[in-house]
């Protein structure tokens, strides 16, 4: 009888072990429209780890959840300037690099730039990077402003003489004060990374002047709006605008969308994959990051979202219209004009939030 009981206990143990193996999971929280979903399916097929995938559309939403704690997420994707503040708040685990054999594939130049946000790249890996510039409908902008429309300049956005003429065909701005305020500062000839209250108020005044001509402050709606010809200009992220360009081309709807990195300079940003300090499945999170760092996987991701990535080894696998497009992988000359920004401290952040709320409300 005892032998039978022991056999039953052993069988139960095997069943439990099997169930645990089947129940391995990684909870990922990423930006919307930001991965080829077949990557997730193939990861599960190879590892047996189920991916529970949720999306957000602003850094502010992610940060609120992270700082409150207990998100249940194992991998999240903050932008560099937010990441640095969150690291200081203890929101992330340090990576166990012994579990990340594919780190050698990463691009040293990008890691060097990310170092200002995550010293030693101790808490994160780069997923994608890009620029914040101007997407526009070629025909509509020319119709409104003429053949010599300043499509390569922030004048298109910040000069009332121009943006006022685009009001009727539709203008969207990013609902992202940490990107729009630096852009305004840069246009005014001020340091885009300024933490001076007076400078930030000047940027707010400029944004308030152009507010009457803005149809909407958006996160990702501009992709379809540009592609469908519903709007003629948007300040947006490089890859999003290029997705709109390609959707318009595929639809053959008479809409031509282009993306410009303004000649005065533009923000260079980095979206980083990191593991929250209270992540429930850290081993699975490391497996996911290591998988993402495979050259074939990262190339597949970039070929889908039309963003540059921080994986040097992936470049030989990128489509020609990705690696060969200076809007995605800018020229060395263009890179010289790209700026980066750091996080606002809590006091300045409150001022920025107040100014941005006033800009959006038009008051």
Automatic annotation (TrEMBL):
Its main location: periplasm. The keyword Isomerase does not apply. Residues 1-21 form the signal peptide. Required for the activity of the bacterial periplasmic transport system of putrescine. It comes from Roseibium polysiphoniae. CDD domains: PBP2_PotF (cd13659). It is found in: Periplasm. This is Putrescine-binding periplasmic protein. Pfam families: SBP_bac_8 (PF13416). Keywords: Periplasm, Signal, Transport. It comes from the Bacteria. Transmembrane segments: none annotated. Belongs to the bacterial solute-binding protein PotD/PotF family. InterPro entries: SBP (IPR006059), Sperm_putr-bd (IPR001188).
């Amino acid at each position: 009888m005892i032998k039978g009981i022991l056999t039953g206990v052993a069988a139960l143990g095997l069943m439990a072990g099997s169930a645990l193996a089947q129940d391995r999971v990684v909870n990922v929280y990423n930006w919307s429209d930001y991965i080829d979903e077949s990557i997730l399916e193939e990861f599960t097929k190879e590892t047996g780890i189920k991916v529970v995938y949720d999306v957000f559309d602003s850094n502010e939403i992610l940060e609120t959840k992270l700082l409150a704690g207990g998100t249940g997420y194992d991998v999240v994707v903050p932008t560099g300037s937010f990441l640095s503040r969150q690291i200081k708040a203890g929101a992330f685990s340090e990576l166990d690099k012994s579990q990340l054999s594919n780190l050698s594939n990463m691009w040293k130049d990008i890691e060097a730039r990310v170092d200002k946000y995550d010293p030693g790249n101790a808490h994160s890996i780069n997923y994608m990077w890009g620029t914040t510039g101007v997407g526009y409908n070629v025909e509509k902008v020319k119709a409104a402003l003429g053949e010599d429309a300043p499509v390569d300049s922030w004048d298109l956005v910040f000069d009332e003489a121009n943006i006022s003429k685009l009001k009727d065909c539709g203008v969207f701005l990013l609902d992202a004060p940490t990107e729009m305020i630096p852009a305004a500062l840069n246009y005014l000839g001020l340091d885009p990374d300024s933490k001076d209250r007076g400078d930030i108020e000047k940027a707010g005044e400029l944004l308030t002047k152009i507010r009457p001509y803005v149809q909407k402050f958006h996160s990702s709606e501009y992709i379809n709006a540009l592609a469908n010809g519903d709007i003629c200009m948007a300040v947006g992220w490089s890859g999003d605008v290029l997705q709109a360009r390609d959707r318009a081309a595929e639809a053959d709807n008479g809409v031509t969308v282009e993306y410009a990195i303004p000649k005065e300079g533009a923000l260079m940003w980095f979206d980083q994959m990191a593991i929250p300090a209270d992540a429930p499945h850290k081993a699975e999170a490391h497996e996911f990051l290591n998988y993402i760092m495979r050259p074939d996987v990262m190339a597949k991701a970039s070929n889908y979202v039309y963003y540059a990535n921080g994986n040097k080894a992936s470049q030989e696998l990128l489509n020609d219209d990705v690696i060969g497009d200076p809007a995605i992988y800018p020229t060395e000359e263009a890179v010289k004009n790209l700026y980066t920004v750091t996080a606002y401290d809590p006091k300045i952040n409150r001022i920025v939030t107040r100014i941005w709320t006033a800009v959006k409300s038009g008051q």
